[in-house]
Amino acid sequence: MTHTPTDPPSSGVVTGFDDEPTQPIPGDLIAAVDTSAAGTDGSPRADSREAARAVSVWTTAQASPAAQRKHKYTPASTAHPAKMLPEVVRHAVTHYTRPGDLVLDPMCGIGTTLVEAVRLGRRAVGVEYEPHWVEVAKANLDGARDDGVTHDARVFQGDARQLVTLLPPEYVGQAALVVTSPPYGPSTHGQVSVAPGEGVQKYHHRYGNQLDRGNLANVGHHRLLAGFTRILFGLRTFLKPGGHIAITIRPWREHSELIDLPAQVLACGHAAGLIPVERNVALLARAAETDFVARGSFFQRDFIRKQREAGLPLHLIAHEDVLVFRTALFPLRSRELKGSQREPKGLLRSACHTDARVPGEVEAVAS
């Protein structure tokens, strides 16, 4: 399958409109970028050339996250602090693979990538660090089987930084696509509850044990980048020649400073020897006839409201980036394959530097 690299959406898309959280946009623009017209089996609808055409804006939030997961994921899945939107996975799987292809997620969480892949007729394999989420992912795959989806999917528990020794040799050179997303930190917006006299309480917003430094969510931003680079390097062993890696990522704030995480992950991919081919936008807001309807969490909305009251013109997040890389188009010879499974000296040197405070670890340079 050939994919034409697409340029990032022009900033002129919303030029001339008031800068508000809900942006008026032309109906013909929505029709042009609407990629939700794929059939249930993952193939484009025969009556929609627009749906089959490669675009850089993915309309992946036309239905709410809860509606996208309804009847496909166990109630226990709700507790995960950072779940990928199923429609993001479905779009990537539909556009970068064919039925029967293998899809891999090295940090699979509740198994969203795996579940959506098998429901589209693909094979799937995932790795998850936390044992609890491994069991939840397996339960979600069992749910697909209960719905009549015959699939070949497996979940392994372990540290994705050790991917080469973690996955069986049968997966070497087999994956057509990787869909994944790194953790942004030890906590997320999570969910809220309101109790009389206690106000608003946050829950399900943290990854596992915060003292567990084996979990990438707990190692700090710079070491997260170094670890993610190592994961990307390991993925090369399991991808087919010309296989794709789709990474969902967005800028985030740390101590009120905006961090361009997509640009840093782009540097991680380059350091890992991958070829960047696309930078797309996956909408987190619903594209209505004339508006973007934001789907921000309670804490996102509360934060934006307070910042505006303080005079800062911040807005709700309406999208996340999807960075797409691919591997070389020609297969590695056996000698080269063995070399690709060994992390070369200085792999991270271009993107990372040694942290003198913690001997033996590396820390990525925040650009």
Automatic annotation (TrEMBL):
It is an enzyme of class 2 (transferase). Residues 56-138 form the DNA methylase N-4/N-6 domain. Transmembrane segments: none annotated. Keywords: Methyltransferase, Transferase. One of its GO terms (molecular function) is N-methyltransferase activity. The keyword Membrane does not apply. InterPro entries: DNA_methylase_N4/N6, RM_Methyltransferase, SAM-dependent_MTases_sf. Residues 1-27 are annotated as: Disordered. The keyword Transferase applies. One of its GO terms (biological process) is tRNA methylation. Its EC number is 2.1.1.-. Belongs to the N(4)/N(6)-methyltransferase family. This is Methyltransferase. It comes from Actinokineospora auranticolor. The lineage of its organism: Bacteria, Bacillati, Actinomycetota, Actinomycetes, Pseudonocardiales.
